[in-house]
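Q: How would the structure tokens look for this protein?
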Amino acid sequence: MNIDLYLFNLINGLAGKYSALDTLGIFIAENSEYILGVFLVMILIYLPRRQAGNFKKYWKMVLEAVIAAVVTRFVIAEIIRAFYFRARPFVSYQVNQLINYNSLEASFPSGHACFYFALSTIIYFYNKKLGIAFYVFSLLIVFSRVFVGIHWPSDILAGAIIGIIMGLSLNILFRKHAHKVIKNYNN
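A: Here is the predicted structure in token form.
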């Protein structure tokens, strides 16, 4: 048995055993976008008040994080999916599938992992504690996607790696661009 199937069975094997865990897994897998939206709004409202004068910093952080996440998910992940199609676990195996999902949509890499790990990486560069919280939130989301039966662990791992690399790369690009804009403004 390969490691991907073994890990999938280990995580997905917990589904269907405890109704509270199933409810939590389904809720996170289906509603992560809404939870994220609430977190981002809280960042924009709470942190600038707590750290006076940093509204611009946190607005910039949110903007850069969203750009990085969207580019990673809807450009990079889709390019990979255009060249490599991997079926979802429930297509080939008997799984504990807790949510309905389109079997024709590629599983690799996980778009959610790409999105949330790119977002978390950018946030981490601005605020370490908040970045760690977003990484934990990202782990919960991607773990739930395996738990409910719609992703392989390697889809998640690849998406997380792509998200982190793109977050790092775009953070460097944003800093270089901002430095040039400031330099040109001062001249």
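The two ends are 63 Å apart (CA to CA).

Residues 19-178 form one domain.

Upvote if useful.
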